Amino acid sequence: ALEQASRLLFLHKFDVQRCHLDTVSDGENGNVTHLRLLVTPIDHGVATKEFFSRLKRELRRSKWLDPSTMDLVFERYPWLGVRRGEIITAFCSLMHPIMAKVSPLAYSKVNILETITKKRYIDHAALIANLFLDKFDPEKLINGEEFVKRKEDLIKAIDSDVEDTTASELLYKMIDIVEHTLRTNIYLYDRYSLGLRLDPRVMVSEGEGERELPYGVLFAHGRRFNAYHVRFRDISRGGMRLVTPSSPEQYALESAHHYDECYGLAFAQQLKNKDIPEGGSKAVNLINVHGLSDVGKNFVMRKSVKAFTDTILDLVVDTEETREKVVDYLGKKEILYLGPDEQVTPGDINWIIRRAEYRGYDTPAAFMSSKPRAGINHKEFGVTSEGVNVYLDVAIRHVLGIDPTKQSFTVKMTGGPDGDVAGNEIKILIREYGENVKIVGIADHSGCAEDPNGLDHEELLRLVNSEMSISNFDKSKLGADGAVHHVNTEEGVKARNSMHNRLEADAFVPAGGRPNTIDIHNYKHFLRDDGSPSSPLIIEGANLFVTNEARQALFDEANVIIVKDSSANKGGVITSSYEICAAMMLTEEEFFQNKAAIVQEVLSKVRDLAKMEATLLFREFENYGGSLPLVSQVISNTINVATDALSVALDNLSKEDRAELLPLFRDHLPKTLAALSFDNVNERVPDQYIKNAIASCLASKLVYKEGTKFIEAQPKEKLANIALQYVLKEKEVAMLKEALASVNMPQQEKDSIIKLLDAGGARTALGKF
Questions:
Q1: How far, in Å, CA of 613 to CA of 707, rounded?
Q2: Number of Cβ atoms within 10 Å of the Cβ of 668
Q3: Contact of 457 with 430, CB cutoff 8 Å
Q4: pLDDT band at residue 651, thresholds of 50, 70 and 90?
């Protein structure tokens, strides 16, 4: 703090005569640094009120500036000023994952910053920063014509003055970023980092293959971190994860695919969120912790969470301050929800909720899921693993012809006993199948344990309950051929990294590990010498563990049946969605008093939705062929297409007609939650959320019941009307079943008629086949 303040004061021609630095305890928040400086102007000039206002603002900003920004504006080019320097370093960070796809070497992270900030090109970069500042200056907005003219003038100047192709392409991209930024917090006084709400088209690289464009992208650039939030629908939810590479080289690699990782996770979430009102999103905060102690690393991580969260709030809250200082080219209110992911702590969650309330977010309790008291902790209740195990159960029966409740089977896993998905999956496997399940291998960050006769169940449960990693497995509990490997030896690292490929098992459950562990370059390691797979079945409890290309190659070459992550581990997102509903519909005390009942009902909902999709997944796979991941994606896409069509159609319905569809939303909710508060749903839940809830509930109901081919066969322009008519026909079928109850006929015949009505009554009544 002292160094930063002194450098800034020197920049503004002040000499520090005396300083006092104190630290004051702030309880659970840590310490507050109190710095007092006695300064005198070097040139004895008279500073204006405007000058001191700027100095005050920059002093407050200095604690949140990235070292690259401080070096640029304090050491190399003091004339730039803090705002322009911050814009330039932010744009350099933002460009890296875009331009690295064009040329990883020419557009490395280091090269981009070095190129843009060369003396030869810094003037051009400064003029681009000026255009950005003027576009979003609330006191002197430039009109569209002036913006276009200035943009064209900048391009002409670069064309005539910059011979180096790498430099010119980077400068053009900076102009592109200015044009595609729709909101920024650059003029907010107390911002924690620089935030941009981007038109997603700016993230498309030259020559990149076609893929679905997100609904929105947020980018934040702050002290030691860069972060993306990607979402695929207007109202979306998804977790925030922290990525902390251990070396500068690893940090540069992570930066190069930072956006793609966030995009891939958000897209997987979009496929996964098919059963809930929120679309898919993800936030990935890439933090530079190189050279820090463990205490320093934790401090920077917590600070980065706060800075990123507050920057998101800068760009989405509607307050007097944001209306005054944030120029809005988007023109619509945005609603998004977060959840915890890798390295986010309960303390982070509590701070985020408090901050959302302080900043005026409409539903602060719903802004972040998995709250310690008023939430449903995923790890405590095993919500993700409950769904994973349903898919494992159905898959074992369909693919292997094994009844796991009666016959023995083997499983290998990645993710440790102390992990959320892996730890709970161990508990559920033992709970559901007892001695029938033999867990032959587990690998996590600490090492791996393996035993062809199955790892001891009691010892595994001890590790789970004690939240201990697999390297703590008691070797005395191993069989004659068992082993425990630690990563503190080269042999142990090799054993851990190869466990998921080496060991043979009926099923492999990746329930932890980094994305893209199995890819198109290494998938053959999963195969034995004769070309057969080490496991014929993979249930993806972890996101993106296997790449799309590797999934297809494993199926084509070895007939490996893979239940994709967007199906297998959707239990967590379903739970978080219910938590969002509860946060909007109940007070914290109401939820807490009824938490036990609500949690059990949520778990039942998770299992039911998993069973419905798993049943449809294997039915369509067996009837129509194709790889299982493709069938899974078809199911997700079909539900999402139907949801989008219905969402548009519902905009055109009267309130009275839409109210007729509210029972769909009520039936979707846990019974206790609905009983307590559904009568007040219109007062407590945003209208847009209710509309999305009705649309998603009807779409998933229709697809799970009738299948994807039925939806695909309908003309897109008629799909919404058919779905709405389907609801009416279901009511007619229900009336027929009720009338049948009073008919005098054998019960067996009644049951057969009811079964036929349930199976195809509504569809037949529609006249659609």
A1: 10
A2: 23
A3: yes
A4: confident
Measured distance CA(548)–CA(528) in Å, rounded: 21
List, in sequence order, every residue forming a beta bridge with 485; answer none if it has no partner.
448
Amino acid at 481: D
* pLDDT (tens digit per residue) in 381-416: 999 999 999 999 999 999 999 999 999 999 999 999
Q: Which two tokens stand for residue 395?
A: 């898959």
Residues with Cβ within 8 Å of 56's Cβ and at least 6 positions away in sequence, in order, are: none
Tell me the average pLDDT across 569-585.
93
CA distance 266 to 237: 9
Closest CA to 581 of 693, 469, 679: 693
Residue 217 DSSP SS3: strand
| DSSP 8-state class, residue 224 | T
Residue type, 66: D
How far is the CA of 616 from the CAs of 26, 385, 622, 664, 755, in angstroms?
55, 20, 10, 21, 18
Question: Which residues contact residue 97 at a Cβ distance below 8 angstroms, ignoring those fewer than 6 apart?
Answer: 203, 255, 256, 257, 258, 259, 260
**In contact, 498 and 528? CB cutoff 8 Å:** no
Strand partners, 437: 409
Alpha helical stretches, state H, 15-143: 49-62, 67-70, 82-99, 109-116, 122-135
Tell me the per-residue pLDDT of 205-229, one tens digit each, with 9 for 90 and over. 988 888 999 999 999 999 999 999 9
- pLDDT digits over 300-353, tens only? 999 999 999 999 999 999 999 999 999 999 999 898 999 888 899 989 999 999
Q: Could you give the C-alpha distances from 523 to 285, 444, 549, 743, in angstroms and in order?
A: 29, 20, 9, 61
Amino acid at 690: I
β-pair partners for 684: none
Positive or negative: CA dihedral 654, 656, 661, 665: positive
- Residue 625: alpha-carbon gap to chain centroid: 31
* Interatomic CA distance for residues 659 and 657, integer angstroms: 5
E strand or H helix that includes residue 231: strand 225-231
Radius of gyration over every alpha carbon of the chain, rounded to an integer in angstroms = 28
Contact 473, 459 (CB under 8 A): yes
Q: Which whole number is the average pLDDT over 177-204?
A: 97
Structure tokens given for 586: 């109940």
**Region of 13 on the Ramachandran plot (φ > 0 left; ψ -120 to 50 alpha; else beta):** left
Q: Report helix, strand or coil for 207.
A: coil
In this structure, the number of other CB atoms found within 10 A of the CB of residue 171 comes to 25
Give 231's strand partners: 216, 281
Q: Give the distance from CA 301 to its chain's centroid.
A: 18
What is the helix (H) or strand (E) element at residue 721, kind and residue range? helix 716-740
Give the tokens for residue 649.
Answer: 């159609």
Q: What is the mean pLDDT of residues 706-715?
A: 91
- Identify whether 173 is a catalytic site residue: no
Strands 279-287 and 31-41: unpaired
pLDDT in tens, 218-262: 999 999 999 999 999 999 999 999 999 989 999 999 999 999 999
Q: Which helix (H) or strand (E) holds 507?
A: strand 507-510
Mean pLDDT for all residues in the chain: 92
Tokens of 378: 């995923």
Among 272, 282, 306, 371, the one annotated catalytic: 282
Does residue 466 sit in helix, strand or coil?
helix
Structure tokens at 254: 């992570």
**How sure is the predictor about 769, in pLDDT bands with cuts at 50, 70 and 90?**
low
- For the stretch 657-693, pLDDT in tens is 888 899 999 999 999 999 999 999 999 998 889 999 9
Check: CB of residue 205 under 8 Å from CB of residue 259: no
Please give the full DSSP string across 262-282, using - where no structure is assigned. Answer: HHHHHHHHHHHGGGSSSEEEE
Element (H, E) at 563: strand 561-563
Q: Confirm if 356 and 367 have CB atoms less than 8 A apart.
A: yes
